[in-house]
Amino acid sequence: MFGGFYTSRYQLGQTPGRGVMYVHDGRMLGGSSAFAHIGSFEQIGEEVAIEIRTSRHNPDPAYPAMAGTDDATLLARGRRDGRNYRFAGELNELPGVPFQSVLTPVEEPSLPSLGGVSEGGIVNGLYSIHLRLLDGVDGGLTGVMLLNEGRILGGDNYFYYLGNYTSGNGRWKGQILNQEHTPALGVDLIFGGHEVGIGFAGTCDMDSAQFEATALAGKRSLRLSAALRLLQRA
Known about the structure:
The protein is an all-beta fold. It has 2 domains: about 5-105, T3SS negative regulator GrlR (Lipocalin); about 115-234, Beta Barrel (Lipocalin). Helix content is about 0%, strand content about 65%. The chain has strands at about 5-10, 15-25, 25-30, 35-45, 45-55, 70-80, 85-90, 100-105, 115, 125-135, 140-150, 150-155, 160-170, 170-180, 195-205, 210-215, 220-234. The strands form 2 sheets. An 8-stranded antiparallel beta barrel has the order 1-2-3-4-5-6-7-8. It is globular and about 50 Å long. It starts with a strand and ends with a strand.
């Protein structure tokens, strides 16, 4: 059955893209460094029909819209190919321009529970995350992060994020493991080529969250801050 956490590679005409996608119970939630991908799927025999709406969460012009517009709708069909799922279709906004993608499952490690979510805890959903380094160090990440009852799944153009958290009374804390799905050396000089562990603590409300953290990238210890904005409840 179609379901789980995947990295995604896709191409619209001659333009490539990358990101992550979580698939569960008829819903699809994911995205990349600049766009959120929110949609649904239907299993039809051995085929899967998907409809995904794309919207921008990062205004940085270094990430242009593949379709020429920040909001677009994809209709595609696909099926399993070994471990992967392959899809083909087109965007409503660009009829006749072929779209194709490959979703590759991510093996999720078993992480110890940190206590879950209690009253006043962070809302389950898909968030944008904008992370920046502190102490005068240039660099940071933007992507999407799915939070669901103590579990973290997320990613961007080059990395995927796995982790867990506990939350209550307007606060949350946890741990994230940041790993490459596409080589980022030469693009991200801080996190590229490293498996990065991040421990964090911060505050949350009904539609946003913040945290400060320490990241271990190779032999470097880096302080950072992050802002999250709720895009879609889960």
